[in-house]
Design goal:
single chain; 407 residues; alpha/beta; five-stranded mixed sheet; 17 helices; 13% strand
Length: 407
Amino acid sequence: MKSKFPSLNEQLDLIQRGAEEIIPIEELEEKISKSIKTGVPLNVKLGADPSRPDLHLGHTVVLKKLRHFQDLGHQAILIIGDFTGMIGDPTGRSKTRPPLTLEETREFGKTYFEQASKVIDGKKARIVYNSEWLARMTFEDVIKLASKYTVARMLERDDFEKRYKNGEPISIHEFLYPLAQAMDSVAIKADVELGGTDQKFNLLVGRDIQREYGQEPQVILTMPILPGTDGVEKMSKSLDNYIGISEPPNEIYGKTMSIPDNLIYTYFELVTDVKKDELELIKKQLQDPSVNPRDLKRKLARTIVEQYYSKEAALEAEENFDKIFVRKEIPDELIEVIVDSNSASNIISLLREIGAAPSNSEARRLVDQGGVSINGEKITNSNSIIQLKNESILKVGKRKFYKLIIK
């Protein structure tokens, strides 16, 4: 009888794509082999932080890996941390994170799943909220759980260790976060847990706690942290170096074109679905001095837009990009705004009035960085007096154009 799963080598080939670490790989091979033999899919777990409902490409790296497991026939289990979200994951934190309410975490979780379904197969994924089991635990249960891990082990974790050495407070409830996340693995009997490299400690705790509860420990698979469009920092909305998967096609295309050349292959590998042989070709082309990296970047931008919209939207976004940045034309779709003649003499108040900047400081930053021009002339001084003609074209940043109607 033929197995419903691909062969071990085929599965490992896809699972290992872009992965940072698989701990331990031997156990994963054993689990997959058993799954092929018995016809029972693996339970593959991903915990979702409900405090960040707006997903960008950085979030999709691990979601893509979850989709790979789905494509191989395994059971994807997305755990919405509505209960753990009230604690707040201390990973990478230099201070205690402010808590959320259960209502907030539930609402964020719903938005997260809606957006995550653009990457994973939402119809086949199991969605569970960890309040289902964590909220039922008694204080006696929590004490028993806490007894299974030591403070010394917790302080081995980088962020706790730094805060402890610097004399910065660590609340006891923060120690409970990795244990609560580990109980998620126990509750669903996880075979594999996915996460970013920054989640390695939490995932390893899950292995230890599963053993304590008499379960076969999960294999952990970590994915790299995707650099943002600046090519330096982790992709983050707060650093404004992100590409949101729900942003308009023109934004996704334009932002992708702004990434450094050295990230082209990384983005192809981690955030697109291009096949292995095509990836190899892209790698060779990037090493070929006769190939312009810009052409490959254009292909990358089209590919990403097509993933979240359509081929037509990708081609239209490319045409709009060429019109603005290659041929230096003004786009057909301008944001038409009516402005008061008084505010139109001051660039800061003008940017605030039309909603192009949320604050005076942000408006000054845009001007100081050379991101504002009127009728093709760059504004270099945020304090300078400007004189606008009716229907002047204001450009803010790289892709926003306004037609100013002065009243």
